[in-house]
Structures
1.
Amino acid sequence: MRSSRQDVSGNYAGAVTRLLAHWVDLAVAGLLFVIGLVALDYVLQTIAGVDAVTDNPEVWSATAASVWLFLYWWVSIAVAGKTIGKAVLGLRVVSREGEILSSFRSALRAISLPFSYLLFGFGFLGIIFGRERRALHDVVAGSAVIYDWGPRTAELPVPISAYLARKSVTESDEPSLS
Amino acid sequence: MTSQDPLQGRLGKLANAIAARVVQTLDLPQLVSEIDVAAIVDQIDILEIMDQSDIDAILQQADMDAVLDSVDVDRVIARVDANALLERVDVNALLDRVEVDALLTRVDVNTLLDRVDVERLLNRIDVNALIARVDLDAVLDRVPVDELAQRAGIPEIVQESTSHMAASFIDALRRIAVGLDLVVYGLAQRILRRQAADLPQRPRLLAMEDSG
């Protein structure tokens, strides 16, 4: 049945996959942040005698979280072309043309990512309605997100593949889902 | 050469004449039948006779082949009580005199093995009874299970199968997500009244790689 599945490797990734990957990234980054924050606070208290978290909890936490989240998205995209969440869901960030995204553009993408949340996530609508399924931070960084399952082929489920195959045969002049 | 005694010559003739007459008169068969041969034999000391005899000289003059040809060996063997004979044999003493190493060096093991019907031998072995006598716990205690598992590559197989299962599970989740992507995107394009065929499916360079 594997051969009956349609190959979508390299295609633009859709909203559901990217949303799930984003949730995974937020969970992983948040967990790592808490662990790192506790470890850093312990080190600062024991070595330098500074109780930064207790003294300025809001400022300290917000600053640390911002820096950490930027580093998480920037470094992982610049080094591997994917974050942990994107790796789990089988996604890769490339340039708009399909090349490896530069370190600078990766940083730009990480900085502009929070702006996609503004106005109730208006910046993410481009993933659903855009021609190239790009969010606001993708447009800013000149990036795109594609399906990439590594050595394995990214595939559609069998029922949808079969539906598309039938549609392409019987209604070749009709617009298909893909 | 000495001259013969005339008296002795006459006596000798007389004696011969008398003897001839006696022999003619005697009924020899009657005489022989009246002799007690058994009594005579009892008085003969055979051992003394043998001691005085030169047995070797007698045997050298004997035609042993003719003697042996006249012996009915089968009949002799038939009369031998083999069990009684064997009971008198001291097997241990016999074996002590056997030089086993020298005997074994003369054995052609390959020829011996060629003559062994292994199938027949195995058929006679009661494997279940044999296994029942084996102390498997003791055997297994001596088996380096960890080393065997390592040499058989079982950890790699387990790792590979585990990785394969995890990858299959993740791929299944990914397929569901990709399917939902397609449904959501298709609905959005219907709302916008776009022809999906006119929309790019992938970045330009990747599409070129795919087509070229």
2.
Amino acid sequence: MKKLTNYLSFLLCILLLAAAACPVSAEANADGYDPDTLSYSNSVDWNKFRGTNTSINVYNWGEYIAVDDGEEGAFDVNAAFEELTGITVNYTNFASNEELYAKLKSGGAAYDIIIPSDYMIARLISEGMLEKLNFDNIPNFALIDDNYKNPDYDPTNEYSVPYTWGTVGIVYNTTLVDPEDDVNTWNILWSEKYAKDILMFSNSRDAFAIALKRLGYSFNTTDEAELQAAAESLKEQKLMVQAYVMDEIFDKMGGGEAALAPYYAGDAITMIDDNPDLAWAVPVEGVNLFIDAICIPRGAANKDAAEMYINFLCETLVALKNCEYIGYSTPHAEAYLYLSDDLKSNPIAYPSDEVIQNSETFTALPSDTTRLIDTLWTSILSNTSTNPYLAMILMFVAIVLSLGINVWRRQRKKQKMYESMN
Amino acid sequence: MTSKSKFLAAPYLLWMIIFIVIPLALIVVFAFTTTVYTDLEGNLLSNEEFDELRIEYDNFYDMADNELPYKKQTVFTLTHIMEVSNYVPVLLNSVWLAIIATAICLLIGYPLAYLISRMRYGFQKLMLMMVMLPMWMNFLLRTYAWMTLLERNGWINKLLGLVGIGPFDMINTQGAVVLGMVYNYLPYMILPLYSIMTKIDNRTIEAAQDLGANSLRVFSKVVLPLSMPGVASGITMVFVPSVSTFIISRMLGGGTNMLIGDLIDLQFLGNAYNPNLGSAISLVLLVFILLCMSITNQLNNEDNMDGGMLL
């Protein structure tokens, strides 16, 4: 659906161009920064790996990098990097931090670059799964806003370089939600009025965060009673939930399938662009401020080339193009200056200080807490019973029955053969 | 059996050992074991203690020179199998939905397969192609297409809206999941049925008619018993993938109707990374499927003594 509208807008664009031949190239914004003047810096020797047949494996979220979609001024980050450095980029997608974690843990795939979120980075660091970065190879790190350096998830900033940030709020469809209702609260996601019109995160950490915040607890609680309470409230909510989704949300909210859904601010901007009926609400209980950052997993084959890629992503031009394409907020101080006035003043991407003050970031949880959340989450999605021997008994009965049936059959067969012989 | 024919079976034997026997053994091992960490004196470490020790080690020691301050051990445990008990309702629900889907496939597939097998040869080819046609399309795409059909603002509801009925909630229900299974696995029911039925000699039917059997008796005494091997393998081929499917329930069931396949997926590629529990669930599912297959085989062997090679 989204792709279709992209093509349609592309066609429309061509028609408009043909009709008016108007210049649509970017202009300088109100602060006088003109993106057209940007080019690559000489911060590192980009040609270091040219001709060495080097390739890197990049593992990123879906729809999370600028690609050439045929629109005016499109910029393809990976293609540009390949052209500039001669390094081949193998680019693949994941849908959730947990999927990334499972892939890394099972050891089946080798990646040079991964872009997880804050809490997952903390978990990967604590489990010794990330390489320390050599910041000599990433001079562009200096361009990152100081507010995003040394974050909670990587306090000494040895493992990660911030890529994007944003908040989690509620995307809602103004034609389906009663204007009388207060959408600026997480409670609306528990409202029976919108039963079966609510979408919910299908990853445990984000889902629990909302439930915990609604009950007035911290996202990062390790208190078992609080987590149990959150799980209970998520079970209650399940009756109201239409579907648990991640990227499917683009289709479902875009097509008016559901009325309310919590999601990430950057994607909300994309959705609202596609479907003007949608709007954004910031719950008063407090929101999650998340940061996605670039890391190198332990054992990466081409660490130097990967660091060059990180440095490339921190080029002002690249960070700007990425930010414009994916709609998430940028931690890159210089790229921010060059943003169009529209985006700069967009309260979804760059919320007010009050919202930021009232936000909380995810930190690393002890592995026992992570395990508890995972168990609770699985039990929310399925329906649980209690007798721990049930599975064993059932399995035993099934084995006995299937053996019994086979023995009985053989017996009958013998008997029949005996009868026919007489 | 000559030694030559044994030699011919060697490639598959090798294949079977590498890709069937060893993985199955691994699943059993995973299901009954767990990984624990101990310090060098052999005392069990809690997760926190282990994390602390590892971080300390990572930060202060050079990897190459120092001995690890902990030991990894794999120990026997029943906890994972016991944990599976929590998910028995999910398992039963999956089995139940798969049974429904299989029954519907049989109801639709049986008459169709019979009709095709009695057609002229040219028509048979054409009809078989029609049955196979959806399978030329990618599985994911077929299921995705049903999503856009069944949605609240989907095509079916739009059409119904034109005549003033609806809209109905079709997607994210168990019915939608069953529909997805039936649509995707119906060819697997029709094809084995057809291949058995096409072997039924018309003369046996005519003989029964000559002896005075009405069409109901012809069906119950001749056609049905002769087609039983096809029924059994059709049921197997629909039931087994249905019971362990995961993408259908996620796309059409909205994640609220979790099936056992989703649960296993969650353990290996999802939130709760726990291959041991995933293996335990797979093992229980395996035993369940074994039971169902034994029952199906029974059905096959009731009247037909030499058709028991299907399991």
